[in-house]
Amino acid sequence: MRIAILLAVLLGACASTVASSSAERKVTVFEGENGRIEWRVQDNAIGFNGSPLRLSDCSTADFHCFVGEGFEIVLPKSCSDFSDGEWHVAAHKSYLISVEYHSNAILVSSDTSPNLAFVVKQGAGVTQIYYDVEERGLFKRPGRWGDLGFNELKHLIFYRDGNAPILGCR
Known about the structure:
Blueprint: H1 2-11, E1 14-19, E2 24-32, E3 35-39, E4 45-48, E5 51-54, E6 56-57, E7 63-68, E8 71-76, E9 86-89, E10 92-100, E11 105-109, E12 116-121, E13 125-131, H2 150-153, E14 157-160
Keywords: Signal
Signal peptide: 1-19
């Protein structure tokens, strides 16, 4: 349930741009077989199929950091720091669970959100979200996701709609 709420908030903030009363607000949308995730970074919100989750922004000069109930992501703002494999801001942490060498991407998760994993490409930021709506903890370290075949994993993938970077690195 917490993950569904979290994803609802996440989906509301990512890819398409929606105008607000005084300024443009960016919404990044991730689409998948099981619905959509919207991530509104400026509003600290993420949502799955319309169920919002408020996030706290714990970002620093060196790291992107967003946390909420059942949700946590910490990513370096410098692309060269991706090789570290684990990133911390205060008590919040995310870690590398896989490297996709053919696409120059990494798969990132956290102990707080074991039903979520983020595909992050250097320069492009988060390009896909894996969300296990059955909440089986597939992305816990050492993770069971590696035992799943593509036919099962493809139902968990939400693809970013558009090319605007979200939580990108420099």
